[in-house]
Amino acid sequence: MGSEFDRFVGIPYADKGRGEAVDCWGLVCRVFSELRGIELPSYAEHYVTAADRRSIAALIAGELDPWLPVVDGEEQPFDCVLMKECGFPRHIGIVTRPGMLLHVQRAETSMIERYRSGPLYHRVVGIYRFMRDGE
């Protein structure tokens, strides 16, 4: 049985991508827009390239206000998993169901992958839920 996230599998990666090709945050923005009607900020203007590790990590740390931490095991679809990349918390994916996330990495297309085991497990920093004002 498929999920509403399946149509986002196979999207190509593009540095700072916010259109047909995306980076990891661009994918989150696209999914939130198309499936939830929520327009998240692009942030593309706040960093030079995806390789700008320190700027991206600082940007994430400064923009967590509308994101509530989720207790491990209580995640739901649309929660976001923040992961380390090159030692910095700068990669993100979207929970499609507990234990699985949708994400895209450099030189790959978007995919659904396990985050509670396998190569992503040790990279997970935290799980967060977006809360609009009044939720």
UniProtKB/TrEMBL annotation:
One of its GO terms (biological process) is proteolysis. Gene3D superfamilies: endopeptidase domain like (from Nostoc punctiforme). GO terms for molecular function: cysteine-type peptidase activity. InterPro entries: NLP_P60_dom (IPR000064), Papain-like_cys_pep_sf (IPR038765). Keywords: Hydrolase, Protease, Thiol protease. Residues 1-131 form the NlpC/P60 domain. It comes from the Bacteria. Belongs to the peptidase C40 family. This is Tail assembly protein. It comes from Bradyrhizobium japonicum.
